[in-house]
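Hypothesis: this fold can be encoded by more than one sequence.
Test: take the structure tokens below, design a sequence, compare later.
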């Protein structure tokens, strides 16, 4: 059985996603997606650095689709944040390794945008990794948190 304190701990771990919600989360998503698109439109250099930014931005578009699905289902924003965003981050690191760090970042506009993306990937990964592991190990507590959010009408 899950205690109130255990659910509160889970709630605190997912506080950022659930307080930001879908509305502000989408603004945050656009804060990365729009500059990436503009960078790709304005800098026509070619090579692995451009491929990385294009592929990472496309993965991000799929993550938005997953978020939209969960918003429609009435899930708290932490659900797609734990599933899709963490999965996207792991895929981005594989993409970064595949293209090679020295090939992805350079002094071009695309290369600088990649630096920004990689720094943010690091910050998000550091915050999402322990939350994802804890949530997986204590999923019944996460379900309890969801039930409480739904009961208090605090999903969105």
């Amino acid at each position: 059985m899950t205690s109130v304190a255990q659910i509160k701990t889970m709630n605190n771990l997912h506080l950022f996603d659930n307080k930001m919600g879908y509305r502000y989360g989408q603004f945050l998503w656009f804060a990365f997606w729009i500059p990436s698109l503009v960078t790709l439109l304005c800098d026509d250099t070619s090579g692995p650095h451009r491929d990385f930014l294009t592929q990472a931005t496309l993965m991000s578009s799929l993550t938005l689709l997953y978020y939209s699905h969960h918003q429609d289902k009435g899930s708290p924003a932490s659900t797609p944040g734990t599933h899709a965003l963490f999965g996207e981050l792991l895929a981005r690191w594989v993409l970064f390794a595949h293209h090679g760090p020295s090939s992805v970042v350079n002094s071009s506009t695309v290369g600088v945008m990649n630096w920004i993306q990689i720094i943010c990937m690091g910050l998000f990964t550091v915050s999402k990794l322990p939350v994802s592991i804890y949530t997986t190990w204590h999923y019944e507590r996460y379900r309890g948190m969801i039930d409480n959010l739904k009961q208090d009408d605090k999903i969105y």
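Residues 4-151 form one domain. The radius of gyration is 17 Å.
Hypothesis status: open.
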